[in-house]
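To: structure desk
From: M.T.
Subject: fold request, one chain
Message: Could you run this one when you get a chance? Sequence is below, nothing fancy, just the single chain.
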Amino acid sequence: MLDKKPSKAPWPTPPFDPRFPNQNQTRNCYQNFLDYHRCMKKMNLRGKSAQPCEYFYHVYHSLCPIGWVQRWAEQIKSGTFAGKI
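Reply: Done. Structure tokens follow.
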């Protein structure tokens, strides 16, 4: 599930998200990480293309520090991730 990497996005930075109007984008990063993995889970269960999930992938990859993403991925694999996916 974590090994699939979608193609590059047509935009260099994520568009404005009115849910996160402040300069600190930490919650935006985390929410898009969760949304990506939830989307992948749903699409895999339905047997559909994961192409709609690419948006979340690109947003969290442009906002989140690499160390966070790696740590969260390890936690998901080990079953200790705190978020609900």
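Reply (cont.): The mean pLDDT is 89. Let me know if you need anything else for the meeting.
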